[in-house]
Amino acid sequence: VDEYGTEVKDVDRRVTALQRQTDAVQKQTDENTHAIKDLSSVYVHGNIGVGALAYSSSFTKVGNYQLAPATSYGAMYLYPGFSRTTSSGLKYGAASEFRTASFNPGLGINENSTSTQGIGALVLRRAYVFLSSPRLGTVQVGQSNGPFTNFQSTVIMYGFDDYNSWITDGGAANSFPTGVQANSLSASAGPLYTVSKIAYFTPSFHGLEFGISFAPTSQGFKEGIANCNAATSTCAALSGEAYIAPAAGVTSNFSDFQTRQQNTLETGLHYSHSVNKDLSFTASVSYLHSTPLANTGSVPIPNGNFAPLNLMQYDVSMTYKKLALAYNVKDGQENSYYRFQQIGAHNAINPVAAINYTMGPWVLGAYTSDYTNSGAYRPGITSSTEEDKTADIGGKYYINKYIDIYFSYLWDHRQQAGVDFSNYGGAVGGGGTVGPRTLGQAASHGVTIGTTVQW
């Protein structure tokens, strides 16, 4: 008994030692697993796009100025950010977007900010912090997209050339004269995403997602605080101001009532479904509401006060194998790229249709838009509506997933009776009297070729 008892004790000691080793290995494994799950990353993504445009327009020659038939263009975008995912699945971080600013022409870029040629610089467009949970959804605070922007089929609509098409946001369309740049009411627009807001998106539930955002004013980071010693027009957080009529030596603040938003609400529902590996579709409906500044003075605004911004968006898309289709409609009280319309003016409507086809490294596509709004409406001077028609057809060849070469043909036509588009859309008699006038309509078309490099 003593002999066997001693052997049993020896075995017990060995088992205990092995268990300690096993526990140590398990502890190290748990620590490694936790470290793998608790991941963080700091990144600086970006892209540079450059291209050339050959074009013709209604304003090739105005007064003593002659436009060149071809020009070059380019833009740089930087997307620095940080994200971290904890072992519990919670994700948090910050994201931003910088891009090259617009400035007046000169001999190359003039870095002197006091020069008439302005200053070439990077501009902060997006900047926000986020907190995301698979079960609770995502919260974003700062200059970010709301549901009105996120629930648009942007990639299908604009992804086949320079990602801009007729959006004057850094692509070829910016090189056309301003008077012939026909508007298209894209939800990927600076008046929406550069405004500081709080946004919430639910997790996807069987393909259904809800989003809501709110912005108290139309300001971005540090906007309107440099000269806000008292309540003046240079303050961003205004709820009202007195209208100032134009006069000799006096600048009117009419545009403040057109553009400065307050209490902006975005909300929407988005649904996506994959029928099989070849067929999928999405559908969404979203709503945008905002109120204009109140006129606190005794001088009335010409042609009446401004109505709140009330705009509905309906978006559907379908992808079948290599074919993608999208249709988007925005409809409601709005005027000329998310400005307020005056009470009694014609509501805006903008249907957009797009098609893409992927063929190996090629993406071929086309896009068309018909945007009707009240434009530069002045009772008794102009017609009640402006109509902007645009079309874009082109393609993109991917050398690899980071480098592409694209080409496109752009066409547009604007019309509103009584409007001098060579005066940047101002009503006839509002200024700009030199040179041949294009009254009531303007048109342009051009071809582009360019490349985009991403990292």
Describe it.
This protein has 455 residues and is mainly beta. Helices cover 12% and strands 47% of the residues. It contains five helices and 21 strands. It has a 16-stranded antiparallel β-barrel with strand order 1-4-5-6-7-8-9-11-12-14-15-16-17-18-19-21. Strands 2-3 form a two-stranded antiparallel sheet. A hairpin with a 2-residue loop joins strand 2 (61-62) and strand 3 (65-66). It is globular and about 110 Å long. The termini are far apart. The relative contact order is 0.13.
The total of beta strands comes to 21
Radius of gyration: 28 Å
- Mean pLDDT metric: 84
Secondary-structure element pattern, one letter each: HEEEEEEEHHHEEEHEEEEEEEEEEE
Strand content: over 45%
Structural class: mainly beta
- The helix content, as a percent range, equals 10-25%
Q: Runs with pLDDT <50, length 5+?
A: 425-436
Taking the sheet with the most strands, its summary is: 16 strands, antiparallel, barrel
What general outline do the C-alpha atoms trace?
globular
Distance between the termini: 76 Å
| Helical run tally | 5
Strand order of the largest sheet: 1-4-5-6-7-8-9-11-12-14-15-16-17-18-19-21
